[in-house]
């Protein structure tokens, strides 16, 4: 089934959700500089053994990922308070 994006984006139920998603992306980029995982972890490629090693050695889960998830959660809480 194909959905016409123009109709979908003008739907009164969908439009506010799209606006909130766009606001989330803007805020995330403002705080972190990008939404691309590879950029956020300084070019790490987790599909390679070297990238996985870098991820573990630099503790990127705690140094980067946790902060990113926290930003998303806090921003969503604010966006859906309104």
Keywords:
mainly alpha, 0% strand
Task: Characterise this structure.
The chain is an all-alpha fold and 82 residues long. The chain has one domain. 73% of the residues lie in helices and 0% in strands. It has helices at 5-10, 14-32, 37-40, 49-57, 60-81. It is elongated.
Task: Describe the structure concisely.
Helix content is 73%, strand content 0%. It is mainly α and 82 residues long.
List the helices and strands and how they pair.
Layout: H1 5-10, H2 14-32, H3 37-40, H4 49-57, H5 60-81
| Oligomer state of the chains in this structure | single chain
Which series of helices and strands comes N to C?
HHHHH
Count all strands and give the number.
0
Largest sheet: none
Helical/strand content category: mainly alpha
Number of helices: 5
How large is the share of residues in beta strands? under 5%
Uncertain segments: none
Distance between the termini: 33 Å
Q: For the residues shown, what is the average pLDDT?
A: 88
Number of domains: 1
């Amino acid at each position: 089934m194909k959905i016409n994006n123009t109709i979908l984006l003008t739907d009164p139920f969908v439009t506010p959700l799209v606006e909130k998603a766009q606001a989330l992306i803007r805020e995330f980029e403002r705080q972190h500089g990008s939404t691309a995982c590879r950029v956020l972890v300084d070019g790490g490629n987790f599909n390679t053994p070297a990238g996985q090693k870098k991820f573990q050695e630099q503790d990127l889960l705690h140094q980067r990922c946790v902060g990113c998830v926290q930003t998303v959660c806090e921003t969503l809480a604010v966006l859906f308070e309104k």
